[in-house]
Amino acid sequence: MAQQKGVDGKVVAEHNSREKGVWIVIHGKVYDMTDFLDEHPGGAEIILKYAGMDATEEYDPIHPPDAITDNLDPSKHLGPLIPNTLPAPPAPTPAPAPAPNTVTISQKGAGAGNSDRPEEYVKPPLEEILSLHDFEAVARRSMNRRGWNYYSSSETMKAEFGEIVTEFGRCPEFWQGLEWFSVRGQRRNKLTRNSGADDEITMPVEVPAEGSIADHAQRENHNAYHRVWFRPRILRNVKSVDFSTSIWGHATSMPVYITATALGKLGHPEGEVCLTRAAAKHDIIQMTHDQGDSDLPDMAVIVVSVVEVVVVVVFVIEIVRMVIVVVVEVIVVIPTLASCSFDEMVDAASPGQVQFLQLYVNADRARTIKIIKHAKERGVKALFVTVDAPQLGRREKDMRTKFEGNASSQQTSGKDNFRRDQGAARAISSFIDPSLNWDDLAELADAAKGMKVVLKGVQCWEDAVMAAERGLDGVVLSNHGGRQLDFAPSPLAILPGVVAALRAGGHLAPRPDRGKFEIFVDGGVRRATDVLKAVALGATAVGIGRPMIYSMSTYGEEGVSKALQILKDEFEMNMRLLGAPTIHDVVPSMVDTSALHAPAVGGTMYQENYEQMMPVGVKARL
Ligand code: HEM
Ligand SMILES: Cc1cc2nc3c(=O)[nH]c(=O)nc-3n(C[C@H](O)[C@H](O)[C@H](O)COP(=O)(O)O)c2cc1C
């Protein structure tokens, strides 16, 4: 029998330390990582943990498809692994039996593999999901810890919960009667042996002591919507309501698009393509991002993909066949650090589906221009240049999980910790160019000719006016979902000022056919009422981030589809009750903003899902 070509797994297994060399298998191929150990942006320690083994499951969700080709010298690509030759990894040390009153929850049914939670939590059937908040609640309980921490992170959250749950994952008895305390030491929530239903595993709802957590921007994004009230009109014919609209002439079934969020495979094995498909089904637009730059270091942002709905009416009259095509789209913005490649996301689109690309501008401008041109060739309709991330925010919750990961290993060194701490900022700096400035936009716009160009991350009216004066096509008022600068304003709160300033400068075409310069808003949107408030105040459409990836992480494409359907149902009901038969009837006089800058009004479902971060050490056992 001919000898099989490739690397024998037994030889791979022997290369399991710095001294013997470090070989790793990813997707059936063998790589020599010995010399790359100290260069690896994720640190040497995680690689050493998998030395001599197959690391595909760990590797996949956190790297873009081209991470290896872009970063590891070709001489270190050792070739295919001969199938079935790699010895099984040593069995993990069994966890000690839980003490009688231990409460466990699990990964069961969540999208991604590599569960770090013990068994138990069973997701409710999709029919029981009634709002976007529900997806978030299920995600919090069922996603693996790394995915949840990355998705839910704000800029400067304290990371105690990450620490607790990591410990929880490894050490069930830790959970014997775990009790949460607020920073004021007040008892909030007990887990006792008889608990087990979701609602018993709750987080403190009360807003913590001032200054105890730092992700004000994320919470304020949502809270601002609670301070705008409606002024409904009556006795209008609302037998049928139409909430479709258009963005630069691209029809969309509602004034909502799926915004760019990186690393979809942290939540679901199929990643962002679930968003693309669901957006197509519901005729909304998705923004995609390129692999080169992402929200995480080292990734390119791919923007957008849009969705289309095509209604074709064909009349055949004699020889002439007249085809009228009405395209209705749901937009999805693809993030830079997508787990799926840009082409995968574009390939997943339905014919005619409109897509937007979200772009991080690379220090290597040629690379960015190449991405833009490729996007144009592939039919992307708009470029959303992210301008609020010259450096990635320090997402402490996310970081804490990594430190905890280190603590589990004997091989952790102070140097590794330092590298890891520095990792994101260091790695990202070569992908997101902090020197980007107004003068660079002409070059990008030139490369994007034919596509609309929008700045994503505008946070005051002056910059919105500058964007319009430079001939750009719109702005997204956004603080990156509260993941960048803490105390960045809620986009909703600045919307009226931006609209007024743009109007005064003659930059806004009258509605409903605006089209000249569009204003988008994202951050904290969880209900159709939120969207209607933003539209009434002058937004063309609203981007939704976390709820989409939570619905994807918990129920896959079906979940995203349900989330979009929930929004549509909410639109229909709310527009009737508001007295607005069409989206163009949702006008400024339908909202009362007098409380917009007043103290926050809480929303219990949001607060319930919001995961409060506490300083190190604030945890207790009964
Ligand atoms: C085979 C060659 C590999 C290359 C070229 C590579 C490259 C990279 C790059 C460029 C980054 C920075 C981008 C990012 O943070 O996502 C990174 C981060 C990371 N890598 Fe790798 N990697 C490799 C293998 C692995 C393996 C085998 C593992 C785990 C078993 C791993 C775990 C990580 C972790 C945990 C991070 C940090 C991600 C974060 O900041 O959240 N890498 N890697
Ligand atoms: C997990 C995650 C990843 C993100 N990745 C990106 C990204 O790669 N590029 C980008 O411009 N914005 C990114 N964002 C910001 C979103 O596009 C959007 O501004 C924000 O999520 C809106 O807030 P929301 O999540 O409350 O809806 C990300 C947000 C999250 C939650």
Automatic annotation (TrEMBL):
GO molecular function, one term: L-lactate dehydrogenase (cytochrome) activity
Region feature (Disordered): 82-119
InterPro entries: Aldolase_TIM, Cyt_B5-like_heme/steroid-bd, Cyt_B5-like_heme/steroid_sf, Cyt_B5_heme-BS, FMN-dep_DH, FMN_HAD, FMN_hydac_DH_AS, L-MDH/L-LDH_FMN-bd
Cofactor(s) required for function per UniProt: FMN
Signal peptide stretch: none
Residue stretches of biased makeup (Pro residues): 86-99
Keyword Ribonucleoprotein included in the entry's annotation: no
Keywords: Heme, Iron, Metal-binding, Oxidoreductase
An individual GO BP term: lactate metabolic process
FMN hydroxy acid dehydrogenase domain residues: 211-596
Domain of life: Eukaryota
Pfam families, alphabetized: Cyt-b5 (PF00173), FMN_dh (PF01070)
Annotated ranges, domain Cytochrome b5 heme-binding: 4-82
Protein name as annotated: Cytochrome b2, mitochondrial
Species of provenance: Saitozyma podzolica
